[in-house]
Amino acid sequence: xxxxxxxxxxxxxxxxxxxxAVLGLFVMLCRARRVSTSVEDAVxxxxxxxxxxxxxxxxxxxxxxxDKATPHLREMLRCVAVAITDEEGTVLSWDxxxxxxxxxxxxxxxxxxxxxxxxxxxxxxxxxELQGPCSLHSVVVVPLVVEGEVAGTxxxxxxxxxxxQIRMAEETARFVSTQxxxxxxxxxxxxxAQAEVKALRAQISPHFVYNALNTISSLIRTDPAHARELLxxxxxxxxxxxxxxxxxxxxxxELTNIHRYLTIEQAxxxxxxxxxxxxxxxxxxxxxxxxxxxxxxxxxxxxxLAKKPGGGMLTIxxxxxxNEALISVEDDGVGMDPERLDDIKDAHQTGAHVGIGNINxxxxxxxxAEYALVVETAPNAGTKVILNVxxxxxxxxxxxxxxxxxxxxPMTNEQPAIRA
Length: 420
Description:
Elements: H1 4-33, H2 39-57, H3 63-77, E1 81-86, E2 91-96, H4 102-115, E3 119-122, E4 138-146, E5 149-158, H5 163-219, H6 224-241, E6 248-250, H7 251-269, E7 273-279, E8 287-289, H8 294-305, E9 312-321, E10 324-331, H9 341-344, H10 356-367, E11 374-377, E12 383-390, E13 415-416
Parallel strand pairs: 7-9
Antiparallel strand pairs: 1-2, 1-5, 3-4, 4-5, 6-8, 7-13, 9-10, 10-12, 11-12
Protein name: Two-component system, LytT family, sensor kinase
Transmembrane segments: 12-29
GO molecular function, one term: phosphorelay sensor kinase activity
C-alpha cells in the first residue's frame, strides 16, 4: 500500500519538475525577446515569483489564494492577463486587462473543463465588438487537474499569438496543478496523523485504564490520601492523552504526562519499578509528535521490566545534539532477540508492543526517513529505543501547553522521577 508520505515525496518531485520546466521555458522566452536585463536577473525574478505563487496556492483553490497568485503568474508569463476559474468556470481571480472579454470566453472555458484539454482561440473567433485595437489577441485556457479531476482552469491572455506562449501557459498550469495537489496531500497527511493518534489512544486505554483503576480501588480503604493523589494523576493523564486538538506537543509536556503514568505504575509495581531521568533543560521546548514517548515508556514497563524477576531500571534521556535533540527510552529488562524487531514493526496492529510501528511511521512522515526509530536490544540485556528529533521543522508547532516541568522543580541532568 502506498503511504501518504510516499505520495507527498512523489508529488514534491513533480513540483520540482514542473518548476524547472516553467523556468526553462521562461529563460527561452527572455532570450527570444532580447530583454534589456540579463537572463540571470530574469531567472532570479522568476524564482521569486514562483516561490510566492507556490505558497499562495498551497492554501487550496480559493478566491483569496487565486487573488494572491495571479499577479505573480502574470508577471512570470509577461502577458496581458492571467485568470483562474473554479471547476464550474466561475472566475476566482483575473489580474490584468481585457477582463470585460470573459463573456466571450465562457464557451471556450466550458470546453476545456468538459474535455479536460487545453483550448486556444484568437481574437477573430471571439466575436469581440470592440471598435479599434484590442489588447486581447490570443487566449489559452488550460485545465487545472488535481487528483485526476478538473479543479478549475488557468486562462492566459496574450497580446501576440505564439507557440512559445502556449507552451508556457501549459507548463504554468501544470505547475499550478502540482501545487494544488500538494495541498491535497498535505490534508491527507494531517488526516492520517490524526487517525494514527486515535489508534494509539485506543491501544493505551484498555489495559492501562483497567490496571490503574484496579490499583486505585485497592488503596481506597488502606491509604485514601494516596488513592486520591493517584486518581488526580489518572485524571490529568487521561485529559492530556485523549485531548482532541493538536498533533504536536513539547518534550516538557510529554515528560509531564509520562510522570503521571509512572506515578500510577509505581503504585502498582512498587520497588520493582525504578525510574531515572537525564534531561538537558535546553531541549525541554523541542516539539515532537503527540504521544511518541509515552507508548515507548509503556512498552519498557510492560514488556521489559514487568517480565523481569525483581523488576529493574527505566532510564529516559534527552540530550542536546546540535540541531537535534537525542532522546532515548531504555530499560534493563528481559530484552529480545534483535531478529524479532522486524516482527514488531507492525506490532501496533496487533497490540504486541503499544504503537511502536505507529510511532516509527509518524516520525518518518513528519521529519523524514532519516528520523526513523533506532532500537538496540538483546536477550536479557534490556532494550533501548532512540529518537532523533530536529529542533526546527516546517509546520511542526505545539498546540497545547500543559505544564513544562515535573514536580514543580526544574529538571536537572539526572533526577529520579519517582520515589522508590
